[in-house]
Amino acid sequence: MTGYRNPFEGWREPLPPELARAGFRQEFATFDGTVLSYVRGPEAGVPLLLVPGQMSLWSSYRRVMPELARRFTVFAVDVRGHGNSSWTPGDYSWDSAGGDLARLLREVIGRPAVVSGNSSGGVLALWCASRTPEEVAAIVLEDPPIFSAEMPRFRDRDRWVYGSLAHAVSVLGDLDPRRVAGIYRQEIPVSETRSVRMPERLVGLFDRLVARHGRRHPGRPASLGVRWLPRSLEEMVRAASMFDPDFAQAFLDGRFYGDFSHEAALRATTCPVLLLHANWNRYENHGLVGAMDDDDARRVRELAPQTVYRRIDARHVIHGDKPHAFTAALTDFAARLPSRSG
């Protein structure tokens, strides 16, 4: 399906009070017709570009942004296909999404930055370091699917994440915001023989809450519309309603990959690298449940020997699950950078 646009492209909304108080503001940049939405903080030191993972928004970083703003000039972006940035159906790849970030670094930030990306955002950080090294002072790879998100391994061996994207496409593919809570119907393996899923009664409640919010607030991103549920549940529903499912489909049908080699990119990267590695499991029936295994992390360090490695007992989105551990690791790493980066 092509020819549709993001109904929230360029849309402005009030920032969370804690970010507004800290001096953050929402801005937009347009590159060859593609709008990138980002939030920036006050001038406070070396630039730091935060790049969320697939089906996540810049706001996933809201818990860590005020603290990071004490040390960095913080920029948090919505990658194309997400949030208030343009949807570009038929044009999703490491090169197109990475090219957006390269232009943001060059034309908006204007000096070498630390680029920190979670999940696919980490692979985009690696893309920037290898393809536009003059714009990058250092990179932080927050549990990235380096090697595991390359074909054919992604589809054939570590197929659980591949199946997760297929589930997202099946739920979101018709662009009906009333269905977004269906993302919670995905099963998560916890052993070779057992998987867990959110109870159907609870997901059914989410369906009703999303529908009620849609009736009361037409034209707005999806929401559960209540304050008594964890913010993380609300964040995922909202992000799913502002996500172009063709971004995920491009991973499934192979369009996303192009000629971008993770191994070649690591060999070409000369800037300092911080690798943050979250929890993972591997099951014979499902493959890797996580982003990278210990062999992947070891291979990153072999190919880019300047890499500083930190294992953190956390779920995949470390900055959301263990925000203090994330900010401590990042600020300690930045304090050791060469003086040219601030």
Commentary on this structure:
By secondary structure, this protein is α/β, with parallel strands linked by helices. Helix content is 37%, strand content 17%. It has 13 helices and 12 strands. It has helices at 17-21, 65-68, 94-109, 120-131, 153-156, 159-172, 200-216, 231-241, 245-253, 262-268, 294-303, 318-321, 323-335; strands at residues 25-31, 34-40, 47-51, 73-77, 113-118, 136-142, 188-189, 195-196, 273-277, 281-283, 287-289, 307-311. The chain has an 8-stranded mixed beta sheet, with helices on both faces. Strands 7-8 form a two-stranded antiparallel ribbon. α2 (65-68) links the parallel β3 (47-51) and β4 (73-77). α6 packs across α9 (245-253). The longest helix has 17 residues, at 200-216. The chain is globular, with a radius of gyration of 19 Å. The chain starts with 16 loop residues before the first helix and ends in a 7-residue tail after the last helix. The mean pLDDT is 95.
Fold blueprint:
Layout: H1 17-21, E1 25-31, E2 34-40, E3 47-51, H2 65-68, E4 73-77, H3 94-109, E5 113-118, H4 120-131, E6 136-142, H5 153-156, H6 159-172, E7 188-189, E8 195-196, H7 200-216, H8 231-241, H9 245-253, H10 262-268, E9 273-277, E10 281-283, E11 287-289, H11 294-303, E12 307-311, H12 318-321, H13 323-335
Parallel strand pairs: 3-4, 3-5, 5-6, 6-9, 9-12
Antiparallel strand pairs: 1-2, 2-4, 7-8, 10-11
